[in-house]
Amino acid sequence: MFSRLSRPKVIEIVNKKNHVTYLYEDQYYWDPDKKQTRHKRRCIGKLDGVTGEPIYNPAYRQELESQGAETIKAIPSFRRYAFEQLQEVVEKELSLGEWMQPLMSKEKVEKILHLAWYLICSNNPISYATHWKQGVYTGVESLSELQGILRSLDAEFLRLWGQRSMEKFDENSSEIIFDLCSTASYQNHNPYLQYGYNRDIGALEQNTIILLAHGDNHIPYSFQILDGTMLSSKIIANVMDTLEVDTDTVLMLNRRYFSVPRIQELVELGYRFIIRIPTRKRWLEQFIEKHRDEILQGAILYDCKGRELRSLSLPAPFLEEASLTIHLYYDEQWRENQRSNLLSLLGRCKRELEFEVPLEEHARLYETYFKVRKRPNGSNRVSLSRDPLRTFEASQAGFWAVITNTGLSAEQVLAKYEQRNDFEHRFNNLMNQEDCRLLHIQSPQYFPGRVFLQLISEIIRQKLLEKLEDTDYSLGQALFTVMDIQEVTFRENDTPYRSELNEQDKEILGKLGIAVEEA
Q1: For residue 382, which of 74, 120, 324, 338 sits 20 to 30 Å off, Cα-Cα?
Q2: Nearest to 288 by CA among 308, 311, 307, 264
């Protein structure tokens, strides 16, 4: 014989397959035979995916009507009101929706802005955006709808966007072109692309993304996708012609472009450029060694992560008439990390030689640091042929260099180089395996649209960073705070309730331009 059922309680359970939240009436009782508390549940409805309101089954709705309104359970609904206000503030300042309106319907504009905010707030694949319902904009409901949006952002749309963006964002300020590393469109066929570039020399196609941005605030507003890499002045000329910029625009080029003949050609054509010099140039090693003590005692700079760097600016030891400057940098923390990584890597190499499983990429390390002899039993005896620490101390680890003819200081060049790395890191999200599998992002019909969504998110991101420029808060900290601030409303009471804000919350909201309201 069972004991009496408890009073019914409404609970929510999310179905992991379809992500629908179902409502159950839950009652517990004591089972004297099993000596356990047992539960009795019945499904009474589900939550609306958009509004969060309960949708009851007809039978349960009829029960509620017969029992009276007092039996309806209080189910709270939550709203991230601070995040919604942030979206409204940014839209008012950028007017992206208004600017895109002539190119597409209002509904599609809202969906694109929703996806752009999703890319800023989430590190997940864009294919997961169908389950993200935050903010004031209309979200996408299915993968097929998301694919349709990407497909509609075709070459003709991008051409019209390029024309309008020139009018909207041209404020007679300096401009800079960021040459981002090869970015995936064929990740499914080449796993090496997940590391940021195509290291497979089997002639698989690559894409390089060229971003055009303001030189001062680094807000990007146009882009071009290249087949392959930008490794000639002819390609540079075509890019600048397509993006409709002149030779005063600064070229932030990939270090693969560097060679003395190419530098000379850029100078003769009147281009302004910033290029990181590959570290394994013999002349650069000699140049660093000659000025090593001067670099270590050079001016103190701080990178975007707050790490202390030393810098020294010198004329380039070649093409003296071209007024080329080499900015030399030294990062002590990076050098320490490289020392630790070398010792760890040498330990792996020793085990690989002992067990006779050598790797091709470690061949130079085997040859430099190890000698192998056979023991009488046939196994390998592996020993060091030189002291790795002494060799490391004589190396140029931690030193790196950038060459430019822009006249910018070492600090200004460092800021632009770090901005390029930030762009490249975030655009690597285009290679996400889940998106390749679910949305076929690698397909040429979807890839340009995906790049455009990333562009819009970068425009919004740079505006947010601009607001936080004079604070110690990162964008991640600010967004976490804003997304955590909510208001709750109960079904039978339309009055919203808000928790009290602390001083840090108020400061972040104030910097972002959000009106601070007391609870």
Answers
A1: 338
A2: 311
Q: How far is CA 44 from CA 19, 21, 54, 515, in A?
A: 17, 11, 10, 40
Express each pLDDT in 41-57 by its tens digit. 888 888 887 777 888 88
Which region holds residue 425: left if phi is over 0, alpha if psi is between -120 and 50, else beta? Answer: alpha
Q: What is the structure's pLDDT at 74? A: 62
Global pTM value: 0.77
- Secondary structure (DSSP) of 404-424: ESS---HHHHHHHHHHHHHHH
Say if CB 11 and CB 42 are below 8 A apart.
Answer: no
Q: Cβ contacts of residue 492 below 8 Å, gap of 6+?
A: 72, 74
CA gap 11, 23 in Å, rounded: 6
Asked if pLDDT for residue 203 goes beyond 50, the answer is no
Domain residues of the chain, as ranges?
Answer: 9-73, 334-393
**Stretch (H or E) spanning 110:** helix 106-121
The residue behind tokens 């397909």 is: 443
Chain segment 405-415, per-residue pLDDT in tens: 999 999 999 99
Distance CA 45, CA 58 (A): 9
- C-alpha–C-alpha distance, residues 416 and 213, integer Å: 11
Tokens 């740079």 belong to 462
**Alpha-carbon gap, residue 498 to 359, rounded angstroms:** 59
Tokens of 436: 């390749």
| CA distance linking residue 23 with residue 61, whole number of Å | 13
CB-based contact 385:365 (threshold 8 Å): no
